[in-house]
Amino acid sequence: MMRRTLIVAAAVATLFGCAGLRMHRNENPYASRLFIEQFLDPNNPLDAQIQQTINGLRANPRSAALHNRLGQLLRQKGFPKDAEVEFERAVDADPHLYSAWYNLGLVRQARGDYPGASFAYHRAVAYRKGFSEALFQLGLMEEQRHNTEGAITYYARAFTINHSLLDVRVNPRILDSKLVDLALMRAYPNEHARESTQFYATPTGYSQPNLEPAPSPQPPATAIVPPTAPITNPAQQQPPPKPPL
């Protein structure tokens, strides 16, 4: 009950935040020089990408893709609060952009806003079915909240969909979990049933005796209408128009 209340509260907060953004939809927040721009060095490749993305948003402030990209760059630069604002603007511009919802969940989770992060991850999974990375993060948060059963459920779903999440080189946060073994045991029955079922392909050279041939896309000869012969009798031809005087 408490978990559901927290998720609802996060949803309300997010919706009010997006509503606030929509109130200023006709305003361009990038029209004036941003605070962060004073820290950008044009000789730094990361800073150059940030400046290029800001310039793109000045021309098109409703681009969800540019907001999502700027959020990632700002997080890499070390501005997590500004990154969170950009991810919120991204999902406000296009609520179906699941990657922006996932990124929003990451920055909220990093600052300890678990209800807000949970809401964002659930939106990501809603718009991209089987989003294994988001399912794993949901499991990690449930484990940190000491909800072992919930964590194992999320982990088992994530590992069943994407085995590479077990590789620390792909998913370094796998080291933060102590429930991986239990999650794999939960996922094993379905995984074993699927992998142990062996199907046979159709034999080479098989011919079905009772299969009628597919109808030809060409009409039968009796339905083909031959073209009309051209008119060669000058008396039956249309005279050419008279030139203007």
Walk me through this protein's architecture:
The chain is mostly helical. It has 9 helices and no strands. It is flat, with a radius of gyration of 31 Å.
Task: Describe the SSE topology.
Layout: H1 2-23, H2 45-59, H3 64-77, H4 80-93, H5 98-110, H6 114-127, H7 132-144, H8 148-161, H9 180-196
Helix pairs in contact: 1-4, 1-6, 2-3, 3-4, 3-5, 4-5, 5-6, 6-7, 7-8, 8-9
List keywords for this structure.
single chain; mainly alpha; Serine Threonine Protein Phosphatase 5, Tetratricopeptide repeat; 2 domains; 9 helices
| Low-confidence residue ranges | none
CATH topology of the largest domain: Serine Threonine Protein Phosphatase 5, Tetratricopeptide repeat
List the total number of helices. Answer: 9
- Outline the biggest β-sheet: none
Within CATH, the superfamily of the largest domain carries the name Tetratricopeptide repeat domain
Question: What coarse outline follows from CA principal-axis ratios?
Answer: flat
Strand content: under 5%
- Spell out the helices and strands N to C: HHHHHHHHH
Please state the CA-atom Rg, rounded to the nearest Å.
Answer: 31 Å
Architecture per CATH nomenclature, i.e. the level-2 architecture of the largest domain: Alpha Horseshoe
Oligomeric state as shown: single chain
> What is the tally of beta strands?
0
| Main CATH class of the largest domain | Mainly Alpha
Structural class: mainly alpha
Compute the number of structural domains. Answer: 2
CA distance, first residue to last residue? 94 Å
